[in-house]
């Protein structure tokens, strides 16, 4: 399609195999979360007859989607139908017939990443959400995996999928970056300081008011504020969004603690433009 879409630039920075891998990772996290919830016994007496069977059946549906996305990824990275069929316990022709419709949908989604709903105003992504908006997916999946595993890696999902830095350069610093409604900026900053157990006594109300003198297109005008967190030092950078006077861009650097990172990411979701 010729019309631009909201995340074209972000998608263009990833290979198609990387986008397929993000979709696979996203579904894997969904399945792990659902399975973990089913392990909890505390609320069995509040679940109606057959309720746990319903949940288990739902897990099977997610697992089927996970398998489909694994096949799409393997095809994108060059695996043959013979190699895929070997692990499915079937022959290549059967494997191809089973998964070709999903691969066709994947192909068409790159030609038309979204369609408009019945109102003609809302975009409905045709790509899996993680492939449609990969930067948000990277941030969310990195945080989720760090909280669930013992991997000592700040970017366990995105680190292997992003394009490598030019030779001799430093690897990119994957900040927590998002948009916050102007009327909610002071609340965002106060909550960030509370979550970080900040000791700098910054006047966050004044910081929120002062941001009006900044411009996201001019990095030299951005406001920068240190936050002394219990787990280390953070840096908060603020700037007006050039094309929307109701929004402020916020970049938080240094949140290496997974729990703090998840809280900050939740703040972006709660106080951002879509809330």
Question: Secondary structure elements and their pairing?
Answer:
Layout: H1 8-12, H2 16-39, H3 51-76, H4 81-88, H5 92-111, E1 114-116, E2 123-125, H6 129-132, H7 134-148, E3 176-181, H8 185-196, H9 204-210, E4 223-229, E5 232-240, E6 247-253, H10 258-271
Antiparallel strand pairs: 1-2, 3-6, 4-5, 5-6
Can you walk me through this structure?
It is a single chain. This protein is an alpha+beta fold. The protein folds into 2 domains: 8-132, no CATH class; 175-271, Beta-Lactamase (2-Layer Sandwich). Helices cover 49% and strands 13% of the residues. It has 10 helices and 6 strands. The protein has helices at residues 8-12, 16-39, 51-76, 81-88, 92-111, 129-132, 134-148, 185-196, 204-210, 258-271; strands at 114-116, 123-125, 176-181, 223-229, 232-240, 247-253. The chain has a 4-stranded antiparallel beta sheet with strand order 3-6-5-4. A two-stranded antiparallel ribbon has the order 1-2. Strand 1 and strand 2 (123-125) form a beta hairpin. 28% of the residues are buried.
List keywords for this structure.
275 residues, alpha+beta, Beta-Lactamase, 2 domains, four-stranded antiparallel sheet, two-stranded antiparallel ribbon, 10 helices, 49% helix, 13% strand
Shape: globular
Q: In which range does the helix fraction lie?
A: 40-55%
The total strand number stands at: 6
Average pLDDT works out at 86
Count structural domains: 2
- What order do the strands of the largest sheet run in, or round the barrel if closed? 3-6-5-4
Strand content: 5-15%
Poorly predicted sequence stretches spanning 5 or more consecutive residues: none
**What composes the largest sheet?**
4 strands, antiparallel
What's the total helix number?
10
């Amino acid at each position: 399609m010729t019309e631009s879409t909201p995340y074209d630039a972000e998608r263009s920075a990833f290979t198609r195999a990387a986008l397929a891998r993000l979709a696979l990772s996203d579904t894997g996290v969904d399945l792990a979360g659902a399975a973990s919830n089913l392990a909890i016994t505390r609320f069995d007496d509040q679940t109606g007859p057959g309720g746990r069977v319903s949940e288990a059946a739902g897990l099977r549906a997610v697992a089927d989607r996970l398998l489909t996305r694994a096949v799409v990824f393997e095809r994108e990275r060059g695996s043959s139908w013979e190699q895929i069929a070997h692990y499915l316990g079937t022959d290549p022709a059967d494997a191809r017939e089973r998964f070709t419709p999903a691969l066709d949908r994947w192909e068409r989604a790159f030609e038309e990443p979204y369609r408009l709903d019945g109102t003609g105003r809302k975009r409905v992504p045709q790509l899996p959400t993680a492939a449609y908006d990969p930067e948000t997916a990277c941030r969310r999946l990195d945080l989720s995996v760090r909280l669930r595993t013992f991997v000592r890696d700040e970017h366990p999902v995105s680190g292997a999928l992003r394009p490598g830095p030019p030779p001799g350069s430093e690897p990119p610093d994957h900040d927590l970056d998002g948009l916050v409604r102007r009327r909610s900026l002071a609340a965002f900053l106060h909550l960030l300081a509370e979550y970080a157990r900040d000791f700098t006594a910054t006047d966050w109300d004044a910081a929120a008011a002062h941001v009006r003198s900044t411009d996201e297109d001019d990095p030299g005008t951005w406001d920068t504020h240190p936050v002394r967190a219990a787990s280390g030092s953070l840096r908060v950078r603020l700037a007006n969004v050039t094309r929307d006077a109701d929004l402020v861009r916020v970049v938080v650097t240094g949140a290496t603690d997974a729990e703090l990172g998840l809280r900050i990411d939740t703040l972006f979701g709660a106080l951002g433009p879509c809330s």
